[in-house]
Amino acid sequence: MKKRGAGSGQRVAPEGRETRDERREAQKRAPSAHALENDQIDALAAGPGVTRIHAERIRQIAYHQWTLDHDREEHDHGELALAACCYAASATSEKIYTKREYSAGTTFTDPWPWECGHDARPYQDHFLKKPTKKQALRLLEKAGALIAAEIDRLLGEEPTL
Questions:
Q1: Alpha helices in the chain (DSSP H)
Q2: Does the predicted TM-score (pTM) go above 0.70?
Q3: Position 19 in a domain
Q4: How many Cα atoms sit within 13 Å of 17 on the Cβ side?
Q5: Does residue 14 form part of some domain?
Q6: How many domains does the chain divide into?
Q7: How far is 106 from 120, CA to CA, in rounded Å?
Q8: Distances from the Cα of 29 to the Cαs of 18, 69, 125, in angstroms?
């Protein structure tokens, strides 16, 4: 609850909170995307993460022929996005599961959408293991490329290579 300052006519926020005017001033001082110059935006868009994801998407198309047509015909139930989630979670050593309840009980299954042949997550004795830094980067590259492929599929547009 805000109180009036003693005789100042200004609002005073409770301790640890800022007033609306203070928030507005802070927002004015903070850099925003609108304040960035075109060359700064280009540099951010061509950063190493974006570059690595783009290279992985090119590899998927060139090496595996996983084109927009393929994705439209074979993966129209969100499988690309789901696989991206699995890869991204694996990069952090976290595991995600799909919970299914049946009359006989509850099961938790790996939500990986395809046969194990396409699963490049790090396993050891049938269990996901903590990835190395190199493996984590590779998993995130694949996750990003799969998200890009799902966006392209939803938009119906061929990616620019």
A1: 20-29, 38-45, 48-64, 68-74, 79-91, 133-155
A2: no
A3: no
A4: 9
A5: no
A6: 1
A7: 27
A8: 15, 47, 53
